[in-house]
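*** Protein under study ***
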Amino acid sequence: MTRWPTCKLALCAALALLGAAAASAQPQRLRTEVVASGLQHPWALAFIGGGQMLVTERAGRLRLVGADGRIGAPIAGLPAIDSGGQGGLLDLITDRDFARNRTLYFCYAEPAADGAGNSTALASARLSADARRLENVRVLFSQQPKVRSRLHFGCRIVQDTDAALFLALGERFERMADAQTLDNHHGKVVRLRPDGSVPADNPFVNRAGALAHIWSLGHRNPQGASLGPDGRLWISEHGPQGGDEINRPQAGKNYGWPLITHGTHYGGAPVGEGRSAMPGLESPLHHWTPSIAPSGLAFVSSALYGPAWQGSLLLGSLRNRYLVRLELDGTRVRREEKLLTDLGQRVRDVRQGPDGFIYLLTDERNGQLLRLHPQ
């Protein structure tokens, strides 16, 4: 057997590492396939089997998209929705046991009974066998208090491995100070059971004056959420002018808004004392200044796009109208890659389908459902 000198072994190892790094640095060429078009400001996408998908439109419509790309009539049975500004019918997911129970969860802007304001609500429903209507619609959670605002609803849903539901909530813009107090749901991530009840291990269950659904606080306007390979919740948040963030909300922790931020008020004035870090407050895992307006999140487990993509975090940019890939080392962002920079459409949602392909929704008046093919 040939024995290589130690120096040659070290050289071979170094070259192998350089080769791997070079392969990782090679941009993935992508081809976009238009699965469906003509959607009006679509917001969220869910897969229901047989190549069929459900898509929410912000104006308050839920659509079935067939395997052939045909868009069905609006599905009946939605509750009253306050559509306007950033509000409307927003996120949607299927239950982990959807194939058996046909259960959906969706969040939306819920109008107050007296018409004085709105808040983000989370509901469950059963999709009928013919996929034409929702049955057994039940409101599981309503953000409190309701306020008169068209801004910062948040509204992203993730189901945990134990079936609990996370709902990421905005601070409604004018009420940003609420994100630091526990007597309201503004600027919070909440956690609940699929029947709407409070899990006994929520961090503020036994704290006087605190709302028991709260999981974490100090959030501004979450616009993307996904369960990571680590089994933990990850979210993207809009900063003010700059300071967009990626966070991994953990039980009872405070993510700082509006006490700390890497951004400024619109116009350039500092937020609070103009600090980006403070003891006892969680700093973001990654942030952007200037803002890219990050939206939907998806982790890549599919092998279709090569090993460099597996474990990556994808997110849409509303402002810059492209797709971002974050290459991760645990919770550290090792590299950022901008993709589809010529797309020219606001990327609202990003999902990995059961077929292993990545799907995007573009938030436009003539919005598209896109499938990404590696080349």
Remarks:
- The mean pLDDT is 94.
- Residues 323 and 339 are 5 Å apart (CA to CA).
- Residues 6-25 form the longest helix (20 residues).
- The radius of gyration is 21 Å.
